[in-house]
Write a structure and sequence with these properties.
The protein has 150 residues and is an alpha+beta fold. It has 5 helices and 4 strands.
């Protein structure tokens, strides 16, 4: 069945292999633009992105024709090739085998965009490990609540 309207917002977090700080500040914007292009080329729209040294946050509204896993795989494989081909980091660049994908309600898109764009200030207060753990706990709690309601 054809879907005329969709509201599929996803906040992705990609982590570098071994959480190594591979993304250099001088190449951050170039990597962000490349990932934006990949998203756009897959009938989806990127709202905000920020590439930290060991992880990247971005929020997209994706086409219903593509799953989160498929989009994440396309972005990961293509961006790895781009970073390595253009020597945008020291050594061989790779993402971890897994990523995180969190659904976002339309009413929270602006808040998530601000959060993503505020990454440098945010990580002066909290480490990535603590941030990631809080995301997982929050969404696990939400899942448990959803199970109680249904």
């Amino acid at each position: 069945m054809k879907i005329d309207y969709n509201n599929l917002y996803t906040h992705f977090i990609f982590i570098t292999l071994n959480r190594s700080p591979m993304i250099l500040e001088r190449h951050r914007e170039r990597i962000e633009k490349y990932i934006t292009g990949i998203v756009n080329n897959n009938n989806s729209k990127l709202y905000a992105i920020y590439a930290n040294p060991e992880h990247v946050h971005f929020i997209v509204s994706r086409s219903p024709k593509i799953s989160e896993e498929t989009l994440a795989t396309i972005i990961a494989e293509s961006s790895e090739r781009f970073i390595n081909k253009n020597k945008l980091c020291i050594g061989r660049f790779a993402w971890q085998e897994t990523a995180a994908a969190f659904s976002v309600s339309k009413s929270d898109v602006d808040k998530v965009c601000k959060y993503i764009l505020n990454q440098p200030k945010h990580h002066r207060k909290i480490s990535f490990a603590d941030e990631y753990e809080s995301f997982v706990k929050y969404y696990e709690k939400s899942l448990k609540i959803d199970k109680l309601i249904s």
